[in-house]
Amino acid sequence: MCGILGYTGERRAVEVLLEGLAPLEYRGYDSSGICVIDEGRLDRYRAVGSLDQLRTVLDVAEPSGATTGIGHTRWATHGGVTVENAHPFTGCDGDQVAIVLNGVIDNYLELRRELEGLGHRFESETDAEVVAHLIEG
Ligand code: GLU
């Protein structure tokens, strides 16, 4: 079962999200990710494995002091356990929308084919990514 978290406030979002995802580890997960918004730009950080792997990615990337973001621990249901399949997902325009999803989308293949027909390009094998593309329109 995944964990989902969002934050907006005064503190550095990356730190709050990491703190908030840690107590959700007991639910089980195989990968994790965070996306923060900084001056209109979406910055994503994702890793396979434990939150420690995500911490390592964040240590290397040295994210900004953005104060709004979302986080996710994934229990894969659709698509392998890879960085590409880790949430959050953005649409084609990587700076318009970012989403995380808990659960499954039964008709995702139908939606994906429809969206691909409209020109959307997908980066993952997951059911979840269709939500980002549906929202960006
Ligand atoms: N179905 C989604 C996926 O496989 C979300 C799974 C979850 O709830 O963590 O990416």
Description of the molecule:
With 137 residues, this protein is α+β, with helices and mostly antiparallel strands. The protein contains 4 helices and 6 strands; from the N terminus they run E-H-E-E-H-E-E-E-H-H. It has helices spanning 13-21, 51-61, 108-117, 129-136, and strands at residues 3-8, 31-38, 41-48, 68-74, 89-90, 98-99. The strands form 2 sheets. It has a 4-stranded antiparallel sheet, covered by helices on one side. The chain has a two-stranded antiparallel sheet with strand order 5-6. Glutamic acid (GLU) binds next to loops.
Termini Cα gap? 29 Å
Give me the count of strands: 6
Low-confidence stretches: none
Please provide the ordered H/E string of secondary-structure elements: EHEEHEEEHH
Q: Quote the beta fraction.
A: 15-25%
Oligomer: single chain
Largest sheet: 4 strands, antiparallel
How much helix, percentage-wise, in residues? 25-40%
Number of helices: 4
Summarize it:
The chain is an alpha+beta fold. It has 4 helices and 6 strands, in the order E-H-E-E-H-E-E-E-H-H.
Question: Any key phrases for this structure?
Answer:
globular; 4-stranded antiparallel β-sheet; 137 residues; two-stranded antiparallel ribbon; 4 helices; alpha+beta; binds glutamic acid
Helix/strand layout:
Layout (H helix, E strand, L loop, with lengths): L2 E6 L4 H9 L9 E8 L2 E8 L2 H11 L6 E7 L14 E2 L7 E2 L8 H10 L11 H8 L1
Antiparallel strand pairs: 1-4, 2-3, 2-4, 5-6
The structure holds glutamic acid (GLU).
The site of glutamic acid has 14 residues, from loops.
